[in-house]
Amino acid sequence: MKRRILYILLVAAMAVSCGRTGLQKGDWKKKNYKAINALVKAHGTRSDGYDPKVRPYAVFDFDNTTVTGDISMSLFAYQIENLRYNLDPEAIYDIFTVGVPNIDCALEGYEGVSVRMLATDLQNDYDWLWRNYIRSGGMSLDEIHKSQEYLDFRAKMWALSAGIDNTFGYEAGCLWILRPLSGRTVADLQELAREAAKSEMKRRKKSEETWTSPDMGEAGVVSVTVPRGLGIRKELVNLYETLQKNGFDVYVCSASAEAVVEAVACDGTMGLDLDPTQVYGLRTSNGERVATYPAYASGYPHTFYEGKSELIRNILMPDHGGRGPALVAGDSNGDYNMLVDFDDMKLGIIFDLPRSGGIQDLKKDKSGRYIVQRWK
Fold first, then answer.
1. Neighbours of 252 (CB within 10 A)
2. Is the separation of the CB atoms in 101 and 95 below 8 Å?
3. Shortest CA distance to 99 belongs to which of 198, 9, 182, 171?
4. φ/ψ (deg, to 5) at 363
5. DSSP 8-state secondary structure symbol assigned to residue 325
6. Would you say residue 263 has pLDDT above 80?
7. Which of 61, 88, 153, 356 has its CA 20 to 30 A from that of 346?
8. Residue 272, exposed/middle/buried by CB under 10 A (0-12, 13-18, 19+)?
9. Cα 256 to Cα 173: distance, rounded to the nearest angstrom
10. Helix runs in the chain, H state only
């Protein structure tokens, strides 16, 4: 009798095991866990209709979706705090202003403060920092961090980047944030990105800091809120692995610089081990070095808003029998288009962060195509 019971339990366990996709429950909402499992079972290698020549595929946003936090902002903050610049001090003003649509209008979020004012103050701050630390190392970084020039530089660098993004949009902001990295080789850039990621991952939890400048220079007092912390949840590492083990191709489509995302997604830094061919991001016309005035690569989509859908249509769909992605995951309005533009998409995952606009409305969709995940 006991043997029979053990046999029945073993058979039952084997049946359950054979039905599993490999997805771990973790902190997925029960409904979401079931929906993802159902997708993998219906379209993965164990499904009757699976065709290895036309593999199903998934497309993930990177910042605040695949990872918690933003790799571009993490790199920007790390560069500021450690003064890791190769910039010519005499060229700072031009580097920060050339090509900006209007350097004299008040920046959104910074009343009465313009690009011209911030760039002028940053020119003066950087010249002092160059002479006392960046070039000569005459002062220690701890000493530098207490200086009025550093505190002014720190807040106004962040204000300039955020103000350009707020005022002139992604088109300008995504390129401008690369300008402080000019003078580096792409390999140096990627190593710096990995350093930044490892440093921010030590914080473990996301937080916010307030950086306030002294009352100096043309812009006077400027105060900014800086998000800190970077990480990746075990549920996302497992989801990537589960999809790939079950015959899905998996891609990242990010508004962060492609080289930066590759740096942390393709070498295990953040728990992923993707191939660069799986990573698509903001692509510029750099050669071996980051250009002083980066420009978007010709003929390649700008990977935000409609550009994410354009990339899927032009680059991914032709390699997958003309089919759209089976799964799309994102968190913001920058991901909205790729979440709604493909009629044959089976499941959209929306990671629930404080947002407004279309992505917030999409969270209320009752069609069953979307699940909303808020982490504990």
1. 26
2. no
3. 171
4. -65, -20
5. P
6. yes
7. 356
8. buried
9. 11
10. 2-19, 30-43, 71-82, 92-97, 115-129, 141-145, 148-168, 170-176, 186-201, 234-245, 258-265, 306-311, 333-340, 358-362
**Would strands 57-60 and 110-114 be described as parallel, antiparallel, or unpaired?**
unpaired
What type of residue is 214? P
d(CA 266, CA 260): 10
Dihedrals φ, ψ of 29, to 5°?
-60, 145
Cα(248)–Cα(326) distance, rounded to whole angstroms? 9
Dump pLDDT digits (tens) for 43-75: 999 999 999 999 999 999 999 999 999 999 999
Token pair of 103 as six digits: 């350097």
Q: Judge whether 293 and 179 are in contact, CB under 8 Å.
A: yes
pTM for this structure?
Answer: 0.92
Beta-carbon contacts of residue 113 (< 8 Å; ≥ 6 apart): 106, 107, 159, 163, 219, 222
CB 234 within 8 A of CB 68: no
Helix (H, G, I), strand (E, B) or coil at 281: strand
